């Protein structure tokens, strides 16, 4: 039978967020981005443009990066969602995942608004391509807007994150400064 | 920037989906990937009273490759089709054009059939479907019908799909294999950022004989006309590259907007035509000939 939900009527939506099954009531027009922020209280996902241009709200659905402002919460029913809160590594000293450490070490953020979208995108990107070239790193982040950094250090962070994820912990640095940042 | 209220329907089968569409008629809109529909709702450019969400419908996520080409179900995401090697072998234009469709995050969610149904003349795959002479199959409680691309696109964001119809699949013809001939394809577009809407894009299919002489050259255009445009350039190219480029420049009908003037888009159509035609012809000439018998 086709399930139907009248406009304005809130009904339960269950998604597995960062490994934990979570349920909250949402009306049909609730976007996944608002659902995780307002209904589940996970405010790490940032909402920028709300029409799929800026990439700030990117989360992973079943491992693939998608814009959570362009997915209805009800469409995500039963799926796995990973938000920026799920990217840490609680068993390590810093509790940061490799992409987060790379962003810190490369100074790849200033105001930080766009950062959650970059972190989720790059996490999936280096899982798919563990050894990106500089061009591939640029392409990986082409769908995310940052208005502070000018991208150089974010590209550096992609390359550094790939190394960290592969177990090479030689620190990265901002473009043109650290050992990892100089390319001749 | 929130979508206006709507009643949500979550059918589990094609029969359920078309039953709902039959009831809600022109008040309804189909939601698949939502990468074009949700921005339209967020910006309040449309306010359908009913959304028929087909994301949980069984059996619509299949890719079938056979001698006739590639048939994809309505829930095949761009990424799924892009990563399907057999589909790319059967019709190389599919991955060539798909890799230019938006950004990876959009391709992960957006469906190829959805972008065809959206009928955006800036869409890469609408242009490819038109160039290949492909078709879409629509279903309603009144039955199923297959619509040729040439009869499907009638205006910007406008198709001949009836309000109660669901596009269940699209068919992209494969490479034509005739003894003594070989073919090649190419796709190129210019966008301010890779992944943005193209200012102009061109797809080409060329076929040559065993001696390398050009038998056929056809190009498909996006972002330079109100419906996907296909131009037959064989005779012009055999005359000279300049003649083919000129035919493309006068054949397109671009508009000016904040991204580019009509004249600039026309210029791009000429430049890209030469580029993809050269590539497609070179590829056709480098393919080992298919022997008769």
TrEMBL record, chain A:
<dbReference type="InterPro" id="IPR001041">
    <property type="entry name" value="2Fe-2S_ferredoxin-type"/>
</dbReference>
<keyword id="KW-0001">2Fe-2S</keyword>
<dbReference type="GO" id="GO:0016491">
    <property type="term" value="F:oxidoreductase activity"/>
</dbReference>
<keyword id="KW-0479">Metal-binding</keyword>
<dbReference type="InterPro" id="IPR002888">
    <property type="entry name" value="2Fe-2S-bd"/>
</dbReference>
<protein>
    <submittedName>
        <fullName>(2Fe-2S)-binding protein</fullName>
    </submittedName>
</protein>
<dbReference type="Pfam" id="PF00111">
    <property type="entry name" value="Fer2"/>
</dbReference>
<dbReference type="GO" id="GO:0051537">
    <property type="term" value="F:2 iron, 2 sulfur cluster binding"/>
</dbReference>
<keyword id="KW-0408">Iron</keyword>
<keyword id="KW-0560">Oxidoreductase</keyword>
<feature type="domain" description="2Fe-2S ferredoxin-type">
    <location>
        <begin position="11"/>
        <end position="87"/>
    </location>
</feature>
<dbReference type="Pfam" id="PF01799">
    <property type="entry name" value="Fer2_2"/>
</dbReference>
<dbReference type="InterPro" id="IPR051452">
    <property type="entry name" value="Diverse_Oxidoreductases"/>
</dbReference>
<dbReference type="InterPro" id="IPR006058">
    <property type="entry name" value="2Fe2S_fd_BS"/>
</dbReference>
<dbReference type="GO" id="GO:0046872">
    <property type="term" value="F:metal ion binding"/>
</dbReference>
<dbReference type="InterPro" id="IPR012675">
    <property type="entry name" value="Beta-grasp_dom_sf"/>
</dbReference>
<keyword id="KW-0411">Iron-sulfur</keyword>
<comment type="pathway">
    <text>Alkaloid degradation; nicotine degradation.</text>
</comment>
<dbReference type="InterPro" id="IPR036884">
    <property type="entry name" value="2Fe-2S-bd_dom_sf"/>
</dbReference>
<dbReference type="InterPro" id="IPR036010">
    <property type="entry name" value="2Fe-2S_ferredoxin-like_sf"/>
</dbReference>
From TrEMBL, chain B:
<keyword id="KW-0285">Flavoprotein</keyword>
<dbReference type="InterPro" id="IPR051312">
    <property type="entry name" value="Diverse_Substr_Oxidored"/>
</dbReference>
<dbReference type="GO" id="GO:0071949">
    <property type="term" value="F:FAD binding"/>
</dbReference>
<protein>
    <submittedName>
        <fullName>FAD binding domain-containing protein</fullName>
    </submittedName>
</protein>
<dbReference type="Pfam" id="PF00941">
    <property type="entry name" value="FAD_binding_5"/>
</dbReference>
<dbReference type="InterPro" id="IPR016166">
    <property type="entry name" value="FAD-bd_PCMH"/>
</dbReference>
<dbReference type="InterPro" id="IPR005107">
    <property type="entry name" value="CO_DH_flav_C"/>
</dbReference>
<dbReference type="GO" id="GO:0016491">
    <property type="term" value="F:oxidoreductase activity"/>
</dbReference>
<dbReference type="InterPro" id="IPR002346">
    <property type="entry name" value="Mopterin_DH_FAD-bd"/>
</dbReference>
<keyword id="KW-0274">FAD</keyword>
<dbReference type="InterPro" id="IPR016169">
    <property type="entry name" value="FAD-bd_PCMH_sub2"/>
</dbReference>
<dbReference type="InterPro" id="IPR016167">
    <property type="entry name" value="FAD-bd_PCMH_sub1"/>
</dbReference>
<dbReference type="Pfam" id="PF03450">
    <property type="entry name" value="CO_deh_flav_C"/>
</dbReference>
<keyword id="KW-0560">Oxidoreductase</keyword>
<feature type="domain" description="FAD-binding PCMH-type">
    <location>
        <begin position="1"/>
        <end position="177"/>
    </location>
</feature>
<dbReference type="InterPro" id="IPR036683">
    <property type="entry name" value="CO_DH_flav_C_dom_sf"/>
</dbReference>
<dbReference type="InterPro" id="IPR036318">
    <property type="entry name" value="FAD-bd_PCMH-like_sf"/>
</dbReference>
